[in-house]
Amino acid sequence: MTGFTLVPSEFFSTEASHKILSEVVPLQDTDIVRHIELPKYKAVLVYVQKSDDESATEPPIVDLLRFAPTISGHNRLAVSLNNNYIYIVLAEGEKLLLANAYPAADVVTAEYFIFASLREFQINPRMTTIHFHGEVPSGLTEEMFRHFRAVEFI
Fold it and tell me: What tens digit of pLDDT does each residue of 39-84 get?
């Protein structure tokens, strides 16, 4: 998993990005710190790219953060499973509540983090559509249909 953090735009400076990220993610001297502006949330995503990673891809959370503002409805939930991690972006109206990654090697653990996130912010799954990005295990999909208003795939 690529380490990342979100910083309000007003507190971000490119010069301080390494220091900001090092406070939440252990960094090596060879790591490259990058950032992406997210104007819809008035925030900047600061993330680490390992120096030996030639692909230079953005972390999976980026796609979810870009997609979430396009979701219609008051509760916005976008989820992705990638390399034994679950990435969750949760927004209520225009307010971003959560953008995080959790270790989830199995379906039960992924479900736990989805429902724990909703419970933390008192979001009713019956009033929420969950949007999955990428491949989703069939067991998880079936379970989500039982709890959410709708399940969509992006």
Answer: 999 999 999 988 766 666 889 999 999 999 999 999 999 999 998 9
> What b-and-e string marks burial along 94-119, b requiring 16 or more CB atoms within 10 Å of the CB?
eebbbbbbbebeebeebbebbeebbe
Of 42, 57, 48, the residue nearest 24 (C-alpha): 48
The predicted-structure confidence for 73-92, as pLDDT tens digits, reads as follows 999 999 999 989 999 999 99
pTM of the model: 0.92
Give the Cβ contact number of residue 148 at 10 Å.
21
Contact 53, 3 (CB under 8 A): no
Token pair in block for residue 135: 């491949």
Q: How far is residue 65's CA from residue 140's CA, in Å, rounded to a whole number? A: 22
DSSP code string of 68-126: GGG--SSEEEEEEEETTEEEEEEEETTEEEEEEEEE-SSHHHHHHHHHHHHHHTT--GG
Domains in the chain and their CATH numbers? 4-49 (no CATH), 61-153 (3.30.420.260)
